[in-house]
Amino acid sequence: MENKYNTPKWISACRPPRLIVGKSNKQLYKQILNMKKTFDSIVIGAGSGGLNIAGFMVKAGFSVLLVDKSDAHIGGDCLNFGCVPSKALIHVAKTVHAAKSAHQFGIDAQGKADMQKVVAYIKSKKDFIRTHENKAYFESIGMTVVLGHATFTSSHSIQVDGTEYYGKRIVLATGSRPRTYTVKGIEHVHVLTNETIFEIEHLPEKLLIVGGGPISIEIGQAFAYLGSKVAIVVKDKRILPREDESIALVLQKRMEQEGVQFYFESVIEEIQSKTQAYIKTQNGNVTHEFDQFFVAIGRELNSEGLDLEKAGIRQHDKKNIIVNKYLETTQKSVLLCGDIVGQHQFTHAAELHAAVIIRNFFVPNWLPFLKKKLNTDHLAWVTYTNPEIATFGLSKAEIEKRSIVHTVIEQNFDEDDRAIVEEGTYGKAKIFVSHDGYLLGGSMVAPNAGELIQEFILAETNKIPVSAFFAKIYPYPTASRVNKRIISNIYKEKLTPLVKKVMKILY
After folding, report:
1. Residue 403, Cβ neighbours under 10 Å: how many?
2. pTM greater than the 0.85 cutoff
3. What pLDDT was estimated at residue 18?
4. Domains, the chain, with CATH or none
5. Which residue among 160, 213, 353, 362 is least crowded, i.e. fewest CB within 10 A of its CB?
6. Counting beta carbons within 10 angstroms of the beta carbon of residue 272, is it exposed (0 to 12), middle (13 to 18) or buried (19 or more)?
7. Which are the contacts of 253, defined by CB distance < 8 A and separation ≥ 6?
8. What residues have CB less than 8 Å from 333, skipping those under 6 apart?
9. How much is the average pLDDT of 166-174?
């Protein structure tokens, strides 16, 4: 609805500085946008999702305000505490592990990694990426960047350090943080999380980890490779509960062989001192000694302190913001992107959110049927352990829920030539194929599974029939030839006695 001066609703909602009354919508809008503190888009949070949106809008010629707490926070969790530092750590850890594993060829590498050098390596990679993820860089390409804590003053305006800014649309991309861990005696220890683990000065002799998810498992294996004695406390019966159990078990056994200790169906009842934890297990209670304590038990959304009520943005509870299938809040001018949505907390999920939001920016309100809904059916993810676990598409539970007729294909890598020569025969794949020959989803555990599975992701996303795998000539012995071997199982099942008899007649 427009007011009596024909002023667009979003401008009226802003309570902007005094306007010249009586002008046309176009003139008023132009006057608003010419004001220094008014923008086409405001993006709060400079992580992956926020930067994707802000970057596109600037390239398309729109005015953009980007807000984050500090220059050091730009890049979000991925650059500062997640994907980048963890993968740098894993790269170093694998290098150290490979050196130690070369004894069978006459090379004797012993000792532990120098943690200060490891941390310096991680920092150097973060700093390299940060050269194009910082306030000065984004200002150089046309964004207005403000550092500080943002709060809403209306559905179209925010305030940062006493200054008010107005925007036609506001994107909230404030991310998440490690969930706080509470247990009796926790005050005795310095709790490490993914926000602090990459800055420790000394390699732990004994690292105790709480949590059985991807962060815990990646960190646990990496530090075991570097030379720490690692134990992981898991409340469930297994690691990685979101993964197929048979796939996750392959990784679990590998880690146990490498010396990682697991306490399954267990909880820490008390931290007895700065070096001892009392653990309740299925086989009785034990006291476990450690010198560093790492926790990864989930994430909390960064939704506090935003004054959401001033914008009319409602929440399910004090943390989760109500969001629809278009990523709009209860105020359609404010959208959510990334972890704050409260679903899949991956960098590439934030990129998916950004793509949906950007597309819908340019769909007129009078053509709502053209708006794109968030669809995560084709989402994939990788746990970057050794071996990696890669998962894509629909889970078996979701396929059965949708009553889709399908075939389950399981394939071990024990007869794959590349896996044989590179000692990866423990690899395994589990793939779901529809009755008419299209991939629905699946998982793989193998060295570099995240790369091997890309063909499956491409085929599933673009609805390419599995028969296409047989039209491709794979150079021998590339690792990806295993994908063709996996798919070939479908055709083995079609070789029924009747088909064989017909083939003999034709031959």
Report:
1. 7
2. yes
3. 47
4. 36-75+133-177+300-370 (3.50.50.60), 186-297 (3.50.50.60), 387-499 (3.30.390.30)
5. 362
6. middle
7. 426
8. 10, 13, 155, 156, 168, 169, 170
9. 97
